[in-house]
């Protein structure tokens, strides 16, 4: 029986009765009823009430090539018929992860030639943490096992992901995080730069918070620094250009590994395959997922640098770690096809040279002047809109986050899917957006801002 045999109300009732959702207040959900998305095509999603919504979030930062691509469905179907599953444990392999690994090594930064697969970004970060700690143990430095992260970082939702992340609400619910992980300030100039402090100086100061922590606990005790090139779920916080070079200098000086989390930024969003390339960062591990398959299948790939891989391979013996679905043949077949489409259609070049700059200009010219907007910023196809009560003083509406939720709800009601983190509206479109789609999005965002302004009078 298919869902078409049910009314929307029936689906909502069943959902409320049996389905626990991620990041959801279930009392709220039961009062409001879930929004049931039934199908999607290109840049649009459609809900069971018949609404067409422009998806400004690419699903959850993942649907890079847009919805309804038959080629991905065909790749999955063909692979399922030939070999739906076999594992890659115990010296077995299957063709699609082999070929995907070769392709990933080709597009990755040149010091990255090995990948480890999982099904989610959280799993990949779990693997990354295990790998860097194991690396230092194999190098004869088992005490070099602390990791430095940032406030408001998001690295996933398993206990490791939440512990690496810097979301206070998540830590409050953990009942004990993974030990030896510290969090320092984030490079968020809009709220944290001091009056008169230049972006450049602020970027250096934010990076030196990492150095301070290394000096506080001793470099012999610090395994790695982990960071998203641009903090995504934490509010699309784009660091000043001075930040990452200084982080790199600090990591090199104290021999601290650099773990990049590119679960959001990977596979084209910043106008290169990886933000490491856009920002000139040389990392020791890079976590990726999401746009690797454009969300059509669950798959993550953790890139491991030649330096780390050499130690693991030469000195490590068996690494007691892996997932049933590591290197899943169907997910890897879909990833291969997805990457082929991104390349064939020149999506990354378009974001870098044409649509990314157009989005930046549109946000500046059409959104930043609005009375409720304190700042817009973007990098490639990641954008943020800061919501304020007062542009000059940057004072926010109270309670915190309430205005952004209001704007988000108006946006959705007017056919525009946006997300809010605190007082920041977030935009992460599929890479297929054209200039016309960007114009349509801006029209709808302005409308949502105008409606919210009326409500907030
Ligand atoms: N890392 C980053 C930067 C993310 O944004 C996310 C998810 O949004 C994750 C890790 C976790 O990925 P997953 O939800 O697939 O476990």
Automatic annotation (TrEMBL):
Top-level taxon of the source organism: Bacteria
UniProt GO cellular component terms: cytosol
InterPro entries reported for this sequence: Aminotrans_3, PyrdxlP-dep_Trfase, PyrdxlP-dep_Trfase_major, PyrdxlP-dep_Trfase_small
Molecular function terms, GO-annotated: pyridoxal phosphate binding; transaminase activity
CDD domains: OAT_like
Keywords: Aminotransferase, Pyridoxal phosphate, Transferase
NCBIfam families linked: PRK07480.1 (NF005682)
Similarity-based family: Belongs to the class-III pyridoxal-phosphate-dependent aminotransferase family.
Protein name (record): Aspartate aminotransferase family protein
Organism (species): Aquibium carbonis
